[in-house]
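#lab-general

N.A. 3:47 PM
ok so I finally got the sequence cleaned up, no stray characters, all 169 residues accounted for. can someone with queue access submit it? mine expired

B.Y. 3:52 PM
send it over

N.A. 3:53 PM
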Amino acid sequence: MRYISVNEYGHFNYHDAEIKKMTIQDHTLTWILSELNATKENSQNDYPEDMCIKECVLLFENFRVEEIVFSALATFDVNNRIIESVQARKAESSEIDGIIESMMNSYNRIQGFEEQPVLNDGRHVVCFEIDSTHGYFDLTISMTTFVAQWDEYSKKAWYEENRWKNRDK
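B.Y. 4:20 PM
back already:
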């Protein structure tokens, strides 16, 4: 790969990145993403603005799922009365493998990202907000090393376009 970024998980904008493929092998979680943006702070981005990566391979080496929390949900009628509501729910440890396996064969889009404090043993921790065929949830994982690899940029990040930058003016 032409570009390789190590432990710079905070120098990407994940919003709307699609997980095209997901595999686990040798304690490494691999995601192939489209529409991931490298921020201008990323060591591999020499452009003056955030850039969209055509296709990126993310490696979470020695990964561990720390928790999965399904989001609360409320459905309202036209009069703004609650029809149905579901409380946020933390997945049981016995469910986690099944949830991860179901992600491998379904649609998954990243809606948000949050960097967490490093654990006492030095493991990096990140939380992804995932919109999946199987629900909307926060996936918190830890890893020893995060590697992002890609060959080319496709364009400026969508939010770098003038029509979006000048929207609030």
